[in-house]
């Protein structure tokens, strides 16, 4: 069954605006990861945040993690048309380093 | 060359046929995975292998089998394809802790008619 659930399912913004996507999960985790998928292509790893971290940055990406609420958010600042893609969160459950469980994704459309 | 190569990229097959999807990786990782993606359902794990002698069922293994021929090769078979196995299939690889994430192939789009 799905561990992470992204919200919203779809998001449409203008270039230059910020995009925020949320992920909720159900069990304790070792870490949470975010991936991007361009239409029909393979997923690309963006960023990982460990369970003992609360915030992490990478370029225009900012990820937060609230383990008490079992939720994470991905913020993309100053969005570009090239950011148009689906974004997935994935969790590594706190039972040893096993497999990642992916959410259903948020589809982001950035219009010029 | 891509780190993870999947063949074929696209395949149309008939109901009842056996089909094999192949995956090879050049990352030198021990761990390999097969996922299936359906619209609105995200990615679901079919099988995974933590080393050449280790094969494990995932969430949706019924109707599928796998073979780990070498550290670099992990193939997925549909024993008798059915239309609801029409989907996008991804192979991925990682090291033990996957702290750099999974590396995915470009996918195989399979249509069963």
Structure description:
- The complex is a heterodimer of chains A (112) and B (113).
- Chain A has 112 residues and is mainly β.
- Chain A is 0% helix and 58% strand.
- In chain A, strands 2, 4, 5, 9, 10 and 11 form a six-stranded mixed β-sheet that branches. In chain A, strands 1-3-8-7-6 form a five-stranded antiparallel β-sheet, with no helix packed on it.
- The mean pLDDT of chain A is 93.
- Helix content of chain B is 0%, strand content 58%.
- Chain B is built from no helices and eleven strands.
- Chain B is globular and about 40 Å long.
- The relative contact order of chain B is 0.34.
- The A-B interface holds A 1-2, 31, 33, 35, 40-46, 48, 88, 90, 92, 97, 99-105 and B 4, 33, 35, 40-45, 48, 58-59, 88, 90, 92, 96-107, 109.
Q: Which structural category fits the helices and strands of chain B? A: mainly beta
Largest interface, C-beta closer than 8 angstroms, per-chain residues:
A-B, 24 and 28 residues
Q: Helical segment tally of chain B? A: 0
Give the overall shape of chain B, derived from the CA principal axes: globular
User: Per DSSP, what share of the residues of chain B sits in E-state strands of 2 or more residues?
Assistant: over 45%
Mean of residue pLDDT of chain A?
93
Integer-rounded radius of gyration of chain A: 13 Å
Q: How do the SSEs of chain B run, as a string of H and E?
A: EEEEEEEEEEE
Let me know the number of strands of chain A.
11
Contiguous runs where pLDDT drops below 50 for at least 5 residues of chain B: none
Structural class of chain A: mainly beta
Q: What value does the Rg of chain B take, in angstroms?
A: 13 Å
Please describe the biggest sheet of chain A, giving its number of strands, its sense, and whether it closes into a barrel: 6 strands, mixed
